[in-house]
Structure prediction request, 86 residues.
Amino acid sequence: MKHKSPKKRAKQDAKRYLRNHSYKSRIATATKQVLALVEKGDKEQALAELKTAQALIDAAATKGILQRNTVGRRVGRLMRHVSAMS
Prediction:
């Protein structure tokens, strides 16, 4: 390889992949926890977990991991599930 830039780009891609992948995994886990609590019918805890999940999802938009519309859709769907509980 003559140039350094392809090596640097590959390193950057690997680094970004790890960061984005771990963040998306945390978001998926938090989302699953909220939905599990909705299934159980525990509204108090579901609201608390929703707050945590929403913070993670919003931070992902700030960091450029998720697109703004995706964030709105995900948070909206979670809120709809929690507010539909009686």
Remarks:
- The CA atoms of residues 74 and 80 lie 10 Å apart.
- The chain has one domain: 11-83.
- The chain has a mean pLDDT of 95.
